[in-house]
Specification:
- Keywords: Membrane, Transmembrane, Transmembrane helix.
- The protein folds into 2 domains: 105 residues, no CATH class; 57 residues, Beta Barrel (OB fold (Dihydrolipoamide Acetyltransferase, E2P)).
- The protein is an alpha+beta fold.
- α1 packs antiparallel against α2 and α2 runs antiparallel to α3.
- The chain has 3 helices and 7 strands, in the order ββαααβββββ.
- The strands form 2 sheets. It has a 5-stranded mixed β-barrel.
- β3 and β4 form a beta hairpin.
- The N and C termini lie far apart (71 Å).
Length: 182
């Protein structure tokens, strides 16, 4: 079949190439585009789903036109159905769990409050250092600042008093009235 003077295979191939290139660009620069143009609010961006749908639609239609001698409308309808199911499965099994994992990071940080850690980079009074926290999942080095009026030197044990903007607020365990969680 011919559309706009070009065979459908050619249109589908060009559509697949363009949609794939746009998808890759969006993967790398999507956050920038979303912040500049204020779209895509939510855990999974609609643009990602649309670009993936068009890439799958064009790719499957190209393969269908190349391999089968069915009517082009039947091939297009089948490609639409398979693309819809594929994008739906991709959203449920891949994109949504990734978005939920990003949102759970804040909750995990709150679990550190009251825990004991060790200073691995000296924390000046008006600056930032780093604290090593050991948990059942391994060790994490997290930025920290002191809540006291004194510097906390490397190797000192501290207790996490709170969290502010992803930075641990710590105090020397010798000066703290709180007992650390185990």
């Amino acid at each position: 079949m011919v559309l706009f003077g070009y065979p459908l295979e050619t249109i589908y191939l060009y559509g697949f190439i363009v949609a794939t290139i746009l998808t890759v660009i969006y993967i790398f620069f999507g956050d920038i585009f979303e912040s500049i143009f204020s779209f895509g609010g939510g855990s999974v961006s609609v643009v990602t789903l649309l670009l993936s749908f068009f890439a799958m639609l064009c790719g499957l239609s190209y393969i269908g036109e190349y391999l089968f001698s069915f009517n082009s409308i039947i091939i297009f309808a089948g490609a639409c159905a398979i693309s819809f199911v594929g994008v739906f499965i991709m959203k449920i099994l891949i994109l949504k769990p990734i978005a939920e994992a990003e949102q759970n990071t804040v909750q995990r940080m709150d679990e550190f409050i009251g825990c004991k850690g060790e200073v691995i980079t000296t924390i000046p009074t008006e600056g930032f250092g780093e604290v090593l926290i050991s948990s059942q999942f391994g060790s994490n080095a997290i930025p920290a600042k002191t809540v006291g009026k004194k510097d906390i030197s490397q190797g000192t044990e501290v207790i996490i008093e709170g969290i502010q903007d992803g930075v641990l607020l710590v105090q020397n365990i010798a000066y703290s009235l709180k007992k650390p969680k185990l």
